[in-house]
Amino acid sequence: MNAARRLAVLASLLALLGACSNAGTTTAAKSAPEGGGRAAGGPAAAGGGTTASRRWYADRLEKLGFHVFPTPVDVGDFSAENLGGGNFRLSATRGKIVLLNFWATWCPPCRAEMPSIQALWNKLKDGSFTIVAVSIDDEFRTIRDFLKTNNYDYPIYYDRSKKLATAFDASSIPTTYLIDKTGRAIAGRKGSLEYDSPELVALVQELATR
To answer: In terms of CB atoms within 10 Å, which end of the chain has fewer, N or C?
Structure first.
């Protein structure tokens, strides 16, 4: 993702979040926890729009604490560093629902939600679903050492330059987006979540099978 594209993605996401904030904040979004990153705060609530124009998944995602974009945002293609060498590209996930999660080993809320992300992966990895967990740690070896002592095998990548995290406004982590099968962000949230709740598992599975 080049600089112009990164700025365009960030501007689109923030514009949607800001527009929805002006329209009002949902109860679920008000109760959503803030992230545990170095910078405080999170995006304003999303959703908005009339009942007729709302996406079928909007109410269910908002009840789970996500901020739903009234219009899905095309995030284009981007790359992240594979822990085993080489690069991963988002375009390789086309046809799958993607849980894009920005995290770091030094972030307690990130570590707290990782077992539930692993559980979600165990339940849905054989379908049209994948996880793109992007670490913003300062050193590659920190991630490697962390994974040696923790039993996580869902897809984890490295944002060495932090440019990807900047593009997706991951100034406070964990920051997570749901991306649809065509590469469009449909919802996002700041803060940790139990990703293996029956309601979320069922919804992601439904998104993946549509």
So the answer is: C
The one-character DSSP state at 64 is: T
Chain-centre distance for alpha carbon 92? 17
Long-range contacts of 18-27 (CB under 8 A, 24+ apart): 18/44, 19/48, 19/70, 20/44, 20/45, 20/46, 20/47, 20/48, 20/67, 20/69, 20/70, 21/45, 21/46, 23/47, 23/48, 23/49, 24/48, 26/62
Which position has the token pair 């080489």?
A: 86
Contacts of 107 (CB under 8 A, 6+ apart): 36, 37, 173, 174
Question: Which domain does 93 fall in, by range?
Answer: 3-209
- Provide the CATH number for the domain around residue 104: 3.40.30.10
Judged by DSSP in three states, 25 sits in coil
CA 150/CA 57 separation, integer angstroms: 33
Indicate whether this model's pTM tops 0.70.
yes
The count of domains in the chain is 1
207: Cβ contacts below 8 Å, ≥ 6 apart: 57, 97, 129, 178, 180
In a structure prediction context, what are the per-residue pLDDT tens digits for the chain, which is 210 residues long?
665 565 566 666 766 655 544 444 333 333 333 444 433 333 333 344 444 488 999 999 999 999 999 889 999 999 999 998 899 999 999 999 999 999 999 999 999 999 999 999 999 999 999 999 999 999 999 999 999 999 999 999 999 999 999 889 888 999 999 999 999 999 999 999 999 999 999 999 999 999
